[in-house]
Amino acid sequence: VKKPGEKMKQGVRQVGHLYHPETLKQKGLLWSSMLLLVTAIVLLGLLGWYWSQEPEAPDMQLITSKYIDDSSHQVVGASYTATLIVLGETLLDKRGGYLSNDVMPPGVWLDNIPNWEFGVLVVLRDASAALRNHFSRSQSQSIEDKSLSRAEPQFNFQNDSWIFPATEGEYRDGLEELENYIARLVDPQQQKAQFYARADNLRQFLEIIEKRLGSLSQRLSASVGQERVNTDLAGDSDARQSTGVPGTLRIKTPWLELDDVFYEARGASWALRAMLQAIEVDFDSILRKKNAVISLRQIIRELDGTQQSILSPVVLNGGGFGVFSNYSLTMANYISRANAAVIDLRSLLERG
Hints:
By secondary structure, the chain is mostly helical. Helix content is 61%, strand content 2%. The chain has twelve helices and two strands; from the N terminus they run ααααααααββαααα. The radius of gyration is 28 Å and the shape is globular.
């Protein structure tokens, strides 16, 4: 049994150990490390929030003036091509740069902006393919432009490659080819680079837009789950498909993918709105002849609604007429109306 004096000495030694210089140094290092870690997490969070801010809508006047010196001389196709270039540059040079292939924080933690980027990228791919295959060619037997034939495959490179080669490098190569094309397009001495504003090639591009918007609308509407009748073969009694499916389908977007679809639709709508504004400039005579300018502007107006400010920090997913709103259904409403207007516009262009 320890004597009282020995217990007191042992207590003094323990207290002395707590205040020993080496112990104090270790605790100081621990607290400093924790403080640095917390500070780093906060700074990365703030940087991630800053990078997650969506870019402003492109200014059409600034876009056109960048590539055309004399604004009174509007070169057909210059607005379309210039807008295509600006979309690509915005994708790569916005806040934080291109984030879909980031492997380091905070970019690797972000989810919404990479999906927004993919929506923009899909429109960029569709518009560049239309430029290569339709707008720059007079007939189906005409020779395609060499710059456009090199540019279009570059944008179809995988969107998340971070090295060997990096996605950004491939997309910038495509933008350089588009800049080469527009430089020849606005040069009166260059006659090989052409852009044909005709009703038939505009209808072909609108058909692509129609399918993109229809797909986004269906995916957004599936946020609450739906029972859908299978209409895949409707309208053709002789139609067949490779694999049989039930007559009624249950469609529902997984909960963790709701914000992915929402921001992809938001990015696609942002890019598509800019492309349609360019089409209004380049196809002005065609649209006025068909009395279709108002129809095009109505599509742009509906897409404007998809870019309203988001008040909630998360994508709300209320069901039906419940207490909470459903952002996906609201977005689907705007896109569905825009899609219906695209169908009407394409039908109007077909009637001669």
